Amino acid sequence: MSDMIYLDNAATTYPKPQSVYDYMHEFYQKHGINPGRSGYDATLETEQVVHGTRKMLTEFFNGTDPYYLTFSYNASDSLNMIIQGMLEKGDHVITTNVEHNSVLRPLYHLMHDEVIELTYIPFDSKGYIDPADVKKAVKKNTKMVILNHGSNVIGTVQPVTEVGKICRAADIYFAVDASQTAGAQKIDIETMNIDLLAFTGHKSLMGPTGIGGSYIKPHVPIRGTRYGGTGVRSAHPFHLEEFPYRMECGTLNIVGVAGLRAGLQWILKEGIDDIHAREMKLWVKLRDGLREIEKVKLYCADSKQNHNAVLSFNVEGWEAGDVGTMLDVDYNIACRTGLQCAPLVHVQLGTEKIHGTVRFSIGPFNTEEHIDAAVAAVKDITSIKK
Questions:
Q1: 307 confidence band (pLDDT: 50, 70, 90)
Q2: Which 3-state string (H, E, C) describes the chain?
Q3: What is the pLDDT of residues 316-374, one digit of tens each?
Q4: Which residues lie below 8 Å from residue 173, measured CB to CB, with a gap of 6+?
Q5: Cβ distance 361 to 11 under 8 Å?
Q6: Which domains are assigned to the chain?
Q7: Per-residue pLDDT at 37
Q8: Tens of pLDDT, residues 84-108
Q9: Using CA atoms, how far apart are residues 277 and 284, in angstroms rounded to an integer?
């Protein structure tokens, strides 16, 4: 693994900061106890870490109340709870072609079951939706707009603030999938008018897999969709309505919470803007290098503005999957190929007909040498005669 060039950070960041590994190990040895279930010192100390992480993330997203920052398995888990908990028979929802299946599939199930109406907003040739299209799509029964903040395929960061203003003016709930942007882009739920934010811990927040969550503003009338133990008022026959219990049940992934806390501490120390600037410097180097290769086609990579360090491309005459296999086997470069769980992006690009794209995604621990090696490898592949 040490010799592998890892360019699949949009799937999960790797490696994590050493401080994350160290803190998780130390925490679980000393505090691997169920929080909030008893009154002895060890469980209280564990609960302090859990609640402290709620506070850190609430401040990071500029929320107001840490009890409304709740934990889940990942962003997909939170998005399912948001979608199932907010929508009812007859509601209209606006979403986009940029979305990941973690949004598309729950919405499609509800549309297929004739619970909701659904409108998809396309993106332009550069990979961005037009907020005016969202405004035009609003109906009398529009309940919610749900938008992917950053595309995991083409890397474009959508105009969330502008869409949020439209939602606020129309009295529509605004949900944002921040899977690719939490930890990579500054997110201010107040200025962006976000009502419901879903995030995962294992990508740019530098935590482990199996932990994510949501921040839901206090005014949002979301229904709980999971019921079980909370360690509080156990004689009550119904699951508790107050937060965080409305969105949580059972034992939390406390070692995941600890890793998420350590990841966030690392980001705060390094500076989110500085991390992003380093990644985008490498992205420009990668883009410019691939641009010079005759048989390579790039997608939505005109500008580094409003962009994450994600780059999709294809090699003329080659299946994306075959290119990915050669990069892995012959050059020890890890990347992602195919549809990347975002099929409508590929439908609009036309790449679904050729089985998707090759995706390079840069993380905090990539180097210029990694980029040089990736460009050289792609150039070698284009020279192979089939």
A1: very high
A2: CCCCEECECCCCCCCCCHHHHHHHHHHHHHHCCCCCCCCCHHHHHHHHHHHHHHHHHHHHCCCCCHHHEEEECCHHHHHHHHHHHHCCCCEEEEEECCCCHHHHHHHHHHHHCCCEEEEEECCCCCCCCCHHHHHHHCCCCEEEEEEECECCCCCEECCHHHHHHHHHHHCCEEEEECCCCECCECCCCCCCCCCEEEEECCCCCCCCCCCEEEEECCCCCCCCCCCCCCCCCCCCCCCCCCCCHHHCCCCCCHHHHHHHHHHHHHHHHHCHHHHHHHHHHHHHHHHHHHHCCCCEEEECCCCCCCECCEEEEEECCCCHHHHHHHHHHHHCEECEEECCCCHHHHHHHCHHHHCCEEEEECCCCCCHHHHHHHHHHHHHHHCCCC
A3: 999 999 999 999 999 999 999 999 999 999 999 999 999 999 999 999 999 999 999 99
A4: 86, 143, 144, 145, 167, 195, 196, 220
A5: yes
A6: 5-16+271-382 (3.90.1150.10), 18-269 (3.40.640.10)
A7: 59
A8: 999 999 999 999 999 999 999 999 9
A9: 11
For residue 106, what are its two tokens?
């729950």
